[in-house]
Amino acid sequence: MLTTVRRLLSRVRALVFRRRLDQEFEDEIASHVAMAVDDYLRRGLDPEQARRAAMLRLGNRASLVEQQREIQRIPLVETAWRDVHLAVRMLMRAPAFTATAILTLALGIAANTAIFSICNALLIEPLPYPDADRLVVIQERDLKDGDTGAVTPADFVDWRQRTRAFTHLSALSPYPHFNLTIGGVPERLSGAAVSANFFELLGTHLTLGRSFRADEENPGRDRVVVLSHDLWVRRFNADRTIIGRAIPLSEKPYVVIGVLPAHFRFIAQRSDINSRRGFDVWVPLAFDPTLLPKLRETHPLRVFGRLAPSMTVRQSEADLSTIAEQLAREHPTSNENRGVRVVALSAHIFRDVRTGLLALQVAVTIVLLIACANVSNLLLTRALGRRHEFAIRIALGASARRVYQQVLTEASVLAVAGGGAGLVAGWAMLSLLKGVMPEMPRVEQIGIDLRVVTFTVGLSIVTALVFAAAPLVHQLRADANDALQQGGRRTVAGSSRLRQLLTVAEIALAFVLVVGAGLIVQSLWRLIHVEPGFHSEGVLAAKVSLSASRYRTSAEAADFHRRVLERVRALPEVRSAGATAFLPLGGTTNTWGFQIEHEPSPKTSAGYRPVTPGFVESMSIPLMTGRTFTDGDSANAPRVVLISETLRRTYFANQAAVGRRLRLLDPTMEWRTIVGVVGDVRHDGLASRAGPDIYVPLAQTPFAVLDMSLVVRTASMPESVIGAVREAVRAVDRDQPVYEIETMERIVESTLGQPRFHSTLLSGFAIAALVLACVGIYGVMAQTVTARARELAVRAAMGATQDALQALVLRQTAIVTGIGLLAGLLGVALLTRLLRTMLYEVSATDPGTLVAAALAVVAVAVIAAYVPARRAGRVDPIAVLRQE
Predict the structure, then answer these.
(1) Least C-beta-crowded within 10 Å: which of 162, 450, 530, 822?
(2) Is the residue at 372 inside a domain?
């Protein structure tokens, strides 16, 4: 081939010499020769056919010059289109290579598109409020341990009166429930009590009517309501004359003053809205001035603010902290060691999901990088097969830029095809993920939008540059003379080193992802086996919300539940039944400060748990000492409480707790005798610590508790008594709805939603990474065996055994794998820093997980190298050397 090229160039020089052309024209003809060959190659001719066609066109000097000038006049766009056309033709000639490359890229791009769509909706898209970046959440902070939580009503009122850091400061209480009965059908409505300026703070304009006025925060003037758009359409047929009319909410008349727009969604953490998906009705948050000074130990409020102009989050926190210090001096009993924390609303809402989503985005990026490495290896193999073609072009005078341009064009075509397939596959993958995602804010807004499409297009372009880099480096180092020689061994050797480097990168990335998935799976395993403090098997939970006008006192509410529970306990399938205001793992809670008798300083807070007799037995919470509640613990009986083991251990470590007295720092300030100690319950989640809890008989609560959860332990399937429980409630009061009926097993399972989601996806991505790494290792080892066929044949001819030849390949695989694992340790250190907050009782540097992940990668490498190693062991020296 080299001789033929030299003969062609000599003929050109002779033609130029005979016609006494100057050096400029000689260069023009030489350039035209190269471009002519290039043009024929674009038309699909192989290198030899292109060479012959170009030689035929050298006979006519005028034709050469005219064609050269014509080629120079071709517009850049048309040149690019010809490159694309040639790239498509060349790729269609190698369907196996093309399909493999496109599918590999589509896998990585699809995963990235799906996860980015979720991150875009939850972490990137601004909240649907004007100037949402000015909205903040204000929480109370314990200066001792740094814990943050809800706000007391008295503190909120003081903040609002004294601060100048906000244009609006508003509070929300997610506890109100209302019963609406229209046409004899009772329905429980989810309600929120908010400050008068709440909708102004959010920048929300009502569809009908007006929002609240400041004077409607006073008791007696607070019987007004704003309806959600869904409730207005569903129960009132979108009647525009509803404004000004009174509707019965829990048998009390509330005047409808407004209707929210259809697009309005109040986005918050689940804990901020008691795990509700939204609110049906909104009422004013009204405080009784006579009770407000006493409300410094209960923490029911979620406080939101809109920063004043030129005010930052840090400055507003400093302003409120100064006020908190003033309140600590004014009210040392309740406000000592109580500070303030201010955080941006978006950061607060997505705090619990941000780390998990970022970890998933890192994981899919790793998968895409491994896919790029695989495609780079494929392109390198293809470049080796075309090295004679590229060498002819360069030898004939084609510029290196033209060769690089063609390689980039083919990579771009592959990237566009992979990106298109990935976008479609990503849409399908996203649809599947939305069906299994746990409850998160704004899940309904996840989808493919312009930003996601732009991300996919940009990702495809970057991907093309990434996986085309290795073939371009190979072309830069390639020697045309060497490539035209028989074998081109130096080029092959350089390509082999580049392919091995890519394989090292694949192994390192796969190792990082497998370690991350292993840590998350191990964390989930431990969470699944956490003892929640109760037995969920065979327990049914159902919520009942009583009417405030009908059940005004705690004794009346307790009597209702006593009669309902009597009917439920009489059922043959029921073993025991009780009720609680705050169902374990139910997403709602409340705390009160308390004081132990004969101890001067009050305690910070404890979980406040109003329950009925039978609750402890129905949940199978262990009784450590003393007794549980009975029907004798009525409103007129001496005040009693149960405490949890954590509270006993913290405050009664070296003395008996039963018989001692404590009091809640509520308006009644009644002393209550401890009659029993029960086991700890993880009320706030399986991964949370069990805190100190105080259980109070429902009949002895300071206020009527209207929202309760019935818990029924059955001898058979819990679902079998759902109808009977409904009938028991209707028999006592037919206007009280029963809702959110669920087994405790499913409630416990739902708390594992996010960990299970992260574990499943990370495990899937880790498996995909291992499969891609396996393919990459196989390709490199197979190419290595092919490139070293002569060496292997010589070794075999000199007496090397089959096992020795196989060991040679496996030894090279072990070296590449070992280097990849060592390189992956750095990535593991970076990833585990991100995963640290997602782990439960698992160290981010758990040695068992690291060893298991390394063994998994080694096993994949051995499997991938097995077939090439066997082929190396079976090499036929005679056949190979004869071919050489």
Answers:
(1) 450
(2) yes
